[in-house]
Amino acid sequence: MTTLQPIAAASLSATVRHLNCGLWLGKSACNYHNARRLSSRGTLRRGFTVSMSAATEPVEVCVKASITTPNKLGDCPFCQRVLLTLEEKQLPYDMKLVDLANKPDWFLQLSPEGKVPVAKLNGSWTADSDVITQALEKKFPTPPLAAPPEKATIGSKIFPTFIGFLKSKDPSDGTEQALLTELTSFDNYIKENGPFINGQAISAVDLSLGPKLYHMEIALGHYKNWTVPDSLPNLKSYMKTIFSLDSFVKTMPSTEDVIAGWRPKVMG
Ligand SMILES: N[C@@H](CCC(=O)N[C@@H](CS)C(=O)NCC(=O)O)C(=O)O
């Protein structure tokens, strides 16, 4: 795969550098993270601890740009999954915002399929959020986000059934019920096994599902006047927990972008 010179990519894209602890103060600026932040993830330690990012160059990652506001992150749930992984691992990253409606040549060179996210890992550009997050886990195992393989598919039918209901024009075609069936099954799972999919600690499976549930909430609220029923309290509190994580708030798209992003599917 062609590797583009970073300087060329940077000059042709909106590049936003993130360091998880505010100002860019040089490579060692993020050496220390306070105990409060770590304790929120369940790995309580007193005082200060050295983070992986001390020795790490920012990970370059191409993500969807906003379609409503210049120079802002857009509404791709797969991109947010990768950004959440970087945030939860407290890794610095360098976001390149890509206008998917007008893909620049430099982007098509490093992502021939024209899809985001793509991240530069071990010197080469890697596509697909599954592949990227697994590679990040391997390269930066702390804190661990991997879940056992049998948990990887928990909640995985929610996104496709949500899209089926969103696109449906016939209220009696069973698509709403299909979504409710999946959501009920997830609610029961969390009731028995929660608060997260892998139990007490957040994992990669939550980081994949969270952005999709966020899209579901906004898109169905807007286009179908639909909300998660009160009969699913465990799902509701799961969503509330995920959506209020620092990492989620930092990487979430605007409501306007989510609505605009789904419009062609609803109208089509
Ligand atoms: N399976 C891929 C899906 C990525 C994907 O579909 N990304 C969309 C944006 S959300 C995209 O780049 N679409 C290309 C386009 O809109 O032209 C992943 O997990 O990364």
Automatic annotation (TrEMBL):
<dbReference type="InterPro" id="IPR010987">
    <property type="entry name" value="Glutathione-S-Trfase_C-like"/>
</dbReference>
<dbReference type="InterPro" id="IPR004045">
    <property type="entry name" value="Glutathione_S-Trfase_N"/>
</dbReference>
<dbReference type="InterPro" id="IPR036249">
    <property type="entry name" value="Thioredoxin-like_sf"/>
</dbReference>
<dbReference type="InterPro" id="IPR040079">
    <property type="entry name" value="Glutathione_S-Trfase"/>
</dbReference>
<keyword id="KW-0560">Oxidoreductase</keyword>
<dbReference type="GO" id="GO:0045174">
    <property type="term" value="F:glutathione dehydrogenase (ascorbate) activity"/>
</dbReference>
<dbReference type="GO" id="GO:0004364">
    <property type="term" value="F:glutathione transferase activity"/>
</dbReference>
<dbReference type="GO" id="GO:0033355">
    <property type="term" value="P:ascorbate glutathione cycle"/>
</dbReference>
<keyword id="KW-0808">Transferase</keyword>
<keyword id="KW-0216">Detoxification</keyword>
<dbReference type="Pfam" id="PF13409">
    <property type="entry name" value="GST_N_2"/>
</dbReference>
<dbReference type="InterPro" id="IPR036282">
    <property type="entry name" value="Glutathione-S-Trfase_C_sf"/>
</dbReference>
<feature type="domain" description="GST C-terminal">
    <location>
        <begin position="122"/>
        <end position="268"/>
    </location>
</feature>
<feature type="domain" description="GST N-terminal">
    <location>
        <begin position="66"/>
        <end position="144"/>
    </location>
</feature>
<dbReference type="InterPro" id="IPR044627">
    <property type="entry name" value="DHAR1/2/3/4"/>
</dbReference>
<protein>
    <recommendedName>
        <fullName>Dehydroascorbate reductase</fullName>
    </recommendedName>
</protein>
<keyword id="KW-0318">Glutathionylation</keyword>
<dbReference type="GO" id="GO:0140547">
    <property type="term" value="P:acquisition of seed longevity"/>
</dbReference>
<comment type="similarity">
    <text>Belongs to the GST superfamily. DHAR family.</text>
</comment>
